[in-house]
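An instance noted here:
***
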Amino acid sequence: MLGKEFRALPNIYLVGPMGAGKTTVGRHLAELLGREFLDSDHEIERKTGASIPWIFEKEGEIGFRSREKTVINELTQRRQLVVATGGGAVTQAENRAYLKNRGIVIYLYTPVELQLQRTYRDKNRPLLQVENPEQKLKDLLQIRDPLYREVAHYVIETHQGAARELAQHILRVILAAESH
């Protein structure tokens, strides 16, 4: 399945809220394309030697977003990648420009109920360590959904199908659009 059309495709960036499945779907998509997969949050942790919660605790969200901007700029300058971004990456105008102008952006739209199910016990999500995580997810989606849509070339709903099926669907959508 690895034809010339796959090598010709630019990088593919997955955006969306926490719990959308960006990392899981991204791994499958990279496998289908024969590309390297990277997660921007994991790259931040690798470069700093510190966990995301620790960075948030010591530097606050502003410090984290600064690190995130540097990593996204670096990743979007590489080639033949599939990249999963952190849920808040789109809050920075620079990140939106890097993503939209340097590849194909897929917004994995996920309803809040599903996000809550998928993130319920995850202590690695500093923004959800609040009294009412469901309300926090609703508030974040209200702010970020327009930004995800602004940057996205394609919006894919994630509430149906397994991650591998979603990756195959994304690839079909991109190839159909690129062939026109």
User: Anything to note?
Assistant: The helical segments are 4-8, 22-33, 40-48, 52-76, 93-101, 112-119, 133-151, 163-178.
